[in-house]
Amino acid sequence: MISGYDIELVDVSARDGLQNEPNARELSAETKVDFIRRLAQSGLKRIEAGSFVRPQAVPAMANSAEVAALLVPIEKEFPDVIFSYLVPNLKGLGRAKDIKAKEIAIFLAISEQFSQANINASVDAAFTAIEPTVKEALTAGIRVRGYISNVFGYTDLPFSPQEVAWRSKQLLDMGCFEVSLGDTIGIGKPEMVAELVEAHVHRGIPLAQVAMHFHDTFGSAISNVARAYALGIRTFDAATGGLGGCPYANSPKGNLAMEELVLWCRKKGLSCAVDDGTSLLRAAAFIHEKLGKTL
Known about the structure:
Oligomer: single chain
Shape: globular
Distance between the termini: 31 Å
Strand content: 5-15%
Strand order of the largest sheet: 1-8-7-6-5-4-3-2
Mean pLDDT: 94
Low-confidence stretches: none
Largest sheet: 8 strands, parallel
Number of strands: 8
Helix content: 40-55%
Order of helices and strands: EHHEHHEHEHHEHEHEHEHH
């Protein structure tokens, strides 16, 4: 956790959200930047802006370099906002360096089935292959956030909190400043959250370096946030408008909506970067209209 708020918010709507929206590939870079500017205006301090992956794999992210170029004046307008970009390898890192990214994210899975579908590599091979990217990023002064997906299980993977904690330790030992634990298909429950947090504590991982990324597939995201917060987790990912999810997951119905997370914070009397959820609702309405969705 890097802010002075009770809850740290990481908005993933412009990357993780849009990448699984059917009409997002039609969005211009200008529209995406307009959306991101609205997110920054709402008070959000950490915003995923795009990813440098193969356009064939994730067409909705094909114009991320153009988005980054157009974000330059937005970065000057909001100097305290951190814009992050997902990179899969050294080639992607090179593109992130070209646009002078201050933060990147790397993405790994603990399901063999998911890992093969996502990057055509085994879990062990993926963790080994990403290390040079992390090291080069750190050498270049770019901080690195690590994502781990399938943390509550997958079709080929039973829930194994100890394995997740071990993989988290691997990423932190590589040099990641934070690990975000993703409930890829929304099957997590509060009691599972408790086991997962306990496993990280048992392995000696500071909870200040652990974030939670919930999907709301079965309506349990806020209950999971509440349990995680009670156990010491303070950083949470969410997507304004509840957009998207992962294109390789089995029918995820959307990320936890940022506006719902902010509302929960207000009800609990917890401070966060967004004082008024109205601006988030307007940003959500804007991007839903561009996607042809109903908010």
